[in-house]
Amino acid sequence: MRMMALVEGGPDRFIAPEAPEREGRMYGGQLLAQSLAAAERTVMDDRHAHSLHAYFLAPGDVSTTVEMQVERVRDGRSFSSRSVGAFQAGRELFRMVVSYHIAERGESFAGHRRPDVPPPEEVALTYTAFSRSMGAQQEWDIESRPMDTRCINPPVAPPGEPVLEDQRMWMRISERLPVSPGLHQAGLVYLSDSSLVDHVVLPHGRRWQDPALTGASLDHAMWFHNPVRADEWLLFDQTVEATGSGRGLATGRIFDADGTLAATCMQEGLIRWT
User: Fold this and answer.
1) Is the pTM of this model over 0.90?
2) Is 137 a catalytic residue?
3) Is 116 a catalytic residue?
4) Range of the domain at 94
5) Most exposed: 90, 113, 157, 233, by fewest CB within 10 Å?
């Protein structure tokens, strides 16, 4: 809640608090969540985000605030569009376009069902612990982030052996949030950046934690299908779609504990080996 307490700094301009972690590069999920919160401040209450498309342009500094500048692209009868730029010291770190919609009645279908997995109470391995077991260089203060993640089927194959199965984990915001659809959407997008791009090297028998890898998130897209609470357990089902030309693309499907598909996201990451 402290991280999401944006302060108005002028017309459609907001100042977002610094990161909860105190070292390393700024977590991309923070820019996603705070930008979404800034955009929501400028739309009518009857409209909720249904999709967003974002680009990570430069690394952020965790020790200082971020300025969010919102552009009101369009307001129609049932849709609104906003563009948000995130800046530090005059440098743009991040750019996002988000679309809002007034909910309408319509037929419902989901092409993916929630996989049959153990409940979160039976899964003890956190993503941080798994990363450390793989020899990760802990440049990020991950444990300070307000999230709880549990790896269901972490890639434990020997180095060099391809891992092709979908990667699954339980996740939630680790503090209780008030009832606010926009806040829970921000929590959902914050969680969605937790591990998605990490898996794009698995088909090649490599690991994101490899010190020889220079990797970074390049862009992030997300579609919201059904409202959920971000502070309750959600299943993140992640698939590597393709790699090539020094990039990798992954898809994530987020289900609630009852099996409802809450959101779909996609992310592309940079893959460079030294």
Assistant:
1) yes
2) no
3) no
4) 1-102
5) 90
